[in-house]
């Protein structure tokens, strides 16, 4: 396998078809720059950032790399209109949009020369976004960390690549060379990894976060929020078990408990009150590596 005719590396102007998942809090400018400098595409996870916070992160990444990078935007961000304006003003090269239908923003971004990518968990939305002119689709399987759908990567990617003409990125459960090769066998032209990049030296997450990933097995994640309509996968901790139990009695109380929990995990490694979002691939990750080492391991079976 070579990347000479790979559509995604050409569209994004990157060396390797590896994208960093858009992770709120965890996806800082520092980590994104490291991924971009290694030859992939790093992603600033804007999460619920306000416009000033995002602008600061964009200014930071511009100082750290001259390579292609992306900003991930979730459609449920309360500041989304202002966020999109910041992205246009700062001439961000690529925008990844998820957690909803981003159709209304595609032409707004493309008119400014910005490459658009949509995250989907079904073929229906993917088809609509392709018709709306989106450039690339990320198919995110339920194995992923954070907010998820309910279809596996193994089923989702072959379906997307059979119904779409635009290139597809595979995400969910990919953390090594075997997952990389499997994604391409299913027709994907790139992979997106999130959890694997948390357990790197360049990631600014608390060491407790990284160590939980290393110690966890493939069954050590739990889904919360499904009853409220926004399922999310995190490492199974006492806190997550408490939230899960509360959901059976009081969704409102459970959601209140979750407020700020990802921040507490990322900044403080708070195992009592933090939500350590991660995918099932935690069971495939056994050590903290540098971003360059992650790339080397992931691409070890590739002949360039």
Along the chain, the helix and strand elements come as HEHEHEHEHEHEEHEHEHHEEHHHH
Strand arrangement, largest sheet? 1-9-8-6-5-4-3-2
3D shape:
globular
- Low-confidence spans: pLDDT under 50, at least 5 residues? none
CATH-defined architecture of the largest domain: Alpha-Beta Barrel
How big a fraction of the residues is strand?
A: 15-25%
**Overall mean confidence score, pLDDT:** 93
Q: Specify the helix fraction band.
A: 40-55%
Indicate the multimeric state.
Answer: single chain
Our Rg estimate from Cα atoms comes to 18 Å
Task: Sum this structure up briefly.
This protein is an alpha/beta fold and 304 residues long. The chain is built from 14 helices and 11 strands.
How does this model look, in words?
41% of the residues lie in helices and 15% in strands. It has helices at 7-12, 29-37, 51-64, 80-89, 103-110, 123-132, 153-163, 177-185, 195-198, 207-215, 238-247, 251-258, 261-268, 291-298, and strands at 18-20, 42-45, 69-74, 94-98, 115-120, 136-140, 146-147, 168-171, 190-193, 221-224, 232-235. Helix 6 links the parallel strand 5 and strand 6. Helix 11 runs antiparallel to helix 12. It is globular and about 50 Å long. The relative contact order is 0.14. The mean pLDDT is 93.
């Amino acid at each position: 396998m070579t990347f000479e005719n790979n559509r995604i590396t050409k569209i994004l102007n990157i060396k390797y078809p590896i994208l960093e998942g858009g992770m709120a809090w965890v996806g800082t400018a520092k980590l994104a720059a490291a991924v971009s400098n290694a030859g992939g595409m790093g992603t600033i996870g804007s999460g619920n950032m306000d416009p000033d916070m995002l602008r600061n992160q964009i200014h930071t990444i511009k100082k750290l790399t001259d390579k292609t990078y992306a900003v991930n935007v979730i459609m449920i961000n309360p500041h989304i209109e202002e966020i999109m304006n910041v992205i246009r003003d700062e001439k961000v090269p690529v925008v990844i949009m998820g957690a909803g239908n981003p159709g209304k923003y595609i032409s707004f971004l493309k008119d400014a020369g910005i490459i658009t990518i949509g995250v989907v968990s079904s073929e229906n939305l993917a088809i609509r976004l392709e018709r709306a002119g989106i450039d690339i689709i990320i198919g995110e399987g339920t194995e992923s960390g954070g907010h998820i759908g309910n279809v596996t990567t193994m089923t989702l990617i072959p379906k997307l690549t059979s119904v779409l003409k635009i290139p597809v990125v595979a995400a969910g459960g990919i953390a090594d060379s075997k997952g990389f090769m499997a994604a391409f066998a299913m027709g994907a032209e790139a992979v997106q990894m999130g959890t694997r990049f948390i357990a790197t030296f360049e990631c600014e997450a608390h060491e407790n976060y990284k160590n939980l990933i290393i110690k966890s097995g493939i069954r050590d994640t739990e889904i919360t929020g499904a009853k409220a309509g926004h399922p999310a996968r995190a490492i199974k901790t006492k806190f997550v078990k408490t939230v899960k139990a509360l959901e059976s009695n009081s969704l409102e109380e459970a959601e209140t408990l979750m407020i700020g929990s990802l921040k507490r995990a990322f900044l403080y490694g708070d195992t009592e009150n933090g939500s350590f979002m991660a995918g099932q691939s935690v069971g495939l990750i056994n050590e903290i590596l540098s971003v360059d080492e992650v790339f080397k391991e992931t691409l070890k079976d590739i002949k360039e």
